[in-house]
Design brief:
The chain is an alpha+beta fold. The protein is 26% helix and 31% strand.
Length: 98
């Protein structure tokens, strides 16, 4: 189970997540305590994304997809946070990797 917490005040936002990830094998379950679950969605603007549950979609790690989207986004920005979400999901929908 992933825990993600966010705190917002007039001066900024803080986001945190645990680092545990469980990997299920055919006969065992292993827990690693070194997973990254928070990533910057933009290299130039303060927008982040947190992942939980499955670390991949269609066999591709979310981390790779987020970093590829970040390259495509470049220094573009959007007025609303929801616009980042819409653009990211649109990019996923038409992504050649998926």
């Amino acid at each position: 189970m992933t825990a993600v917490a966010g705190i917002l005040n007039k001066q900024g936002v803080a986001i945190a997540a645990d680092s545990a990830v469980t990997v299920n094998g055919p006969n065992h379950r292993k827990v690693y305590n070194s997973a990254n679950k928070i990533f910057t969605l933009s290299k130039y603007h303060p927008v982040g994304i947190a992942i939980y549950n499955s670390a991949q979609i269609m066999g591709i790690p979310w981390e790779i997809l987020i970093k590829e989207y970040r390259k495509k986004l470049g220094d573009r920005s959007f007025e609303k946070l929801s616009d980042y979400k819409t653009d990211f999901f649109s990019w996923l929908e038409f992504n050649k990797y998926l």
